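JOB MANIFEST
job_type = single_chain_structure
chain_count = 1
residues = 761
[input]
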Amino acid sequence: MNKAITDGLQLMPPAFAEGLNVWSSGNGTPGSDTYDGAANAVFVAADADFGGCLEMQKTGNTQKLRFMGQTPLEPGCYLQIKVRIKAISGALPAVRVAGWAAAAGGSHISGVTEFAPQVTLSTYGEVVEVTGIVGSGSRGGVDMPWGRTAAYGHFGLDLTGANGGVVRIDDIEITDITSAFLRDMLSVVDVTDYGAVGDGSTDCTAAFEAADAAAAGRRILVPAGDFHLASTVSLSHEAVFEGTVSMPASQMLLLTKNFDFPSYAAAFGDEELGFKKAFQALLNNVDHESLDLMGRKITVTAPLDMQAAVPNKTSYATRRIIRNGQLEAANSAAWDTDVVTSQATYSPSRSTRLTNVANIANIKVGSLVEGAGVGREIYVKSKNNGAGELTLTAPLFDAAGTQNFTFRDFKYLLDFSGFSALSKFGMEGIEFQCNSRCSALRLAPSGSVFSLDGCFFSRPKDRGITSTGTGCQGLLVDNCQFLSAEDPLDVEDRVSIGLNVNANDAKLRSNRATKFRHFALLAGANNTVTGNHFFQGDNVANGVRSAGLVLAANNCTTTVSDNYIDNCFIEWTNERDPTPDFTTGFSFSALSVTANVFLSGDVAPWFSYIVIKPYGSGHYLNGLSVTGNKFRSLNGSIDRAERVDTSFSDLDFSRSNDVVFEGNMYHNVSTHSANPLRIRHNQSSASSSWAIRANGQLPFQGYARFVDSVVPQGPVRTGGNSNRYSMPYCDTQQGANNDEIRLRWQEALKGEVQVLLRMDA
């Protein structure tokens, strides 16, 4: 690095042969005395050692020689002043490089060192080279550190010691030696200085470790080249990669000071590989709890097998996070779904097994299972090729016998299914840009509390989040966006699903999902679904709608509150029961639907917002609370807000228990259901038997099983208008639909009463 070349700065003073009028006997400032015509100085044209040189006699205590030109000094620049001198006669003086420090305005900078160490001349005729280094920083080897305010200097030499001696001085040289300080100035240690060779084959592990040990707080520079690391390397200092590294998949690069995705992408020269190696380091004590993608987009050409990236880990249970970036699926055949059709046998007695599976070797673990009697989101959990058996994530409701099944292995941007268990892992602020080419995220087969916060699942081809086991236990999905690739399609043509959960304790909070087949299928219990907005409409007049939220366990113990459920519905089933007819248990129980906004438009009149679908006979309601909801239909009214899908069976309403259905608001909904149901009945003609009908207003068209109260609204009279003060008794479950009661009076009476009916015990 030479400032005179790179910046056009003039550093070298003129030769003495050009005249002594620019050489001062003072500080070199304008107006100071020069050696032009001085009695003690003369230019010698031919010297055996120097050629042309200055001959000078020392006459003062400190004989100064300064170039009067302004030699610039910039921050970060280091100059070397070199003087070659020899004694000719008389007393032998000492000599030192010296200067006068000036600020930008020309004022003197006081308090700084303005001379270098001196050298005493000891022999006549011996050429002695004296140097001094001046610069802005107080670094090792700098004789005159002048700080950042120094703008220029007047440089030369001092003669000290006894007077009277005569010396000859060669032309003074000033050169830029910043390059000698550059590495130290930038706090960089170069791995090549410690034996690293960037040829792609030499093992540089020891060199990297030595550079790290010597860094002492400075950065480590990996210059251009391909540096092979045969073993794990942990760097405790920040590393800068101009070149790249290569290493076996089983070995790790642990960048403890600059642990982020851009550093790993630079280190390996490849985004996908850099991401894998960064994830490997994250799970191997890199001294960071999270991997920051720093807002970068990673183009992914094939499914990322996250366990394969960490060969030394098959399970992990320490909190780790990946945050702040985007994964984008590139156009590639690697995303194509593998589809296998095979014959297999199912028995309810082995409810999660398929046996005698043909072509089992070609069926991938994690594949979706389809076939007659198979519920939604059933996956292959494991397989035994030798025994010809597949283990499924859940039972099948009506598949006994032998049939053909279809197995679809979707491809995912991030696939954690290679881990046996993964717990306390999370992703924050990640966008899965699937581009209609692939699915987004597949969880490990077991584990707990996988969390997703502020993530975008953009245009997944098949699935947003898939659980093929119990790795969804305690799943947390908060503030995420699920953006369907099937937005232009009619509802009946959509197949993609936002997410599924098999285990318990899922929390879906404040998410938004657009036009999937289903937003979420929850097959476990103790779920919380709150503050979400999911919508699934289309432009078809009187069109069908699909379930936004599917609860696939009848004893679901789930709270659904404060959601915006738009052009879809809640479907509650027992489709994972291998013996779906009710024999024992709690049946359809423990569901709370509270303070939601239900909205629909252009739907068929039979559409409803809450649908229960029993897959077997004998089931009943045994704990359901539907309160404070707003039901509204646009562009036409619907018959009722809730119904039973009787495709397989109806509910047994003679056993309904603990049903609360009140405080709801209905707009363009013909039937306003409630339980308890308040009915005002006017008996205009005297009768001893008053028929009071619920008219389908009990939830799900349930039975009128109990009467909480009968309150006359005014006097009860005989046909002759005489007041009577007797009380009736009630016959319940009357009429063809069991939704009427009879008030039995002692005599024929007329009047008006308010009755509070219940469908439940």
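[summary]
The helical segments are 3-6, 178-185, 205-215, 261-268, 271-282.
Residues 49 and 619 are 114 Å apart (CA to CA).
exit_status = 0
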